[in-house]
Amino acid sequence: MKVLPLGRLDYQSALDIQNRYVDGLIAGTGGEVLLLLEHEPVYTIGRTRDHSSLRDSLPHPVVETNRGGQATFHGPGQLVGYPLLDLNRRGRDLHNYLRFLEEFLIRLCAEYGAEAERREGLTGVWMGRKKIASLGVGVRKWVTMHGFALNVQAVSLPAFLHITPCGIAGVEMTCLEDASGRRISLEDITARATEMFPALAEEILQSDA
Hints:
Blueprint: E1 2-9, H1 11-27, E2 33-39, E3 42-46, E4 62-65, E5 72-74, E6 78-84, H2 94-110, E7 117-119, E8 122-127, E9 130-140, E10 143-151, E11 172-173, H3 176-180, H4 186-204
Parallel strand pairs: 1-2, 3-4, 9-11
Antiparallel strand pairs: 2-6, 3-5, 6-10, 7-8, 8-9, 9-10
Helix pairs in contact: 2-4
């Protein structure tokens, strides 16, 4: 599995890159890859008729995209990961895949001394009752796209005040810097994620290749 750090990128450019890799995996001409990046500020929402999680007069553009879930924000200070994996050879189990993404994020937070956790019945990663990371995935012929967004720096948080994050009323967002009590660079956490993700994927999403 390759890990590609892309730096800061607009949403459509990252989506185009995802689609190219997904097409290659489906055609059998490409390999698995994890894209790690920051986005230019954007709100995204899954393809649903219910847009109640978006409010009026939003400060950033909105993109409707082919993932599950309600509205979220992507922007500077956030580590976004797009794992493009072939679940045809990794069990075809979306529930297990989502739990793997949560486990990866929990372990990544632990690298910075922050104790993250799951909350029963809710997808994502939490610090007590505050949410620190969101998940939203899409699948084409059992090849995954989209993925996770981890709030790393405090600059990533104000934009969430303009929406109902993930459609969960009253949810409060937090970030890894606040949880750990230290400054964290995107370069550092990208490097740690690059080291950790492929090994954990092989541990939890065992491949038959």
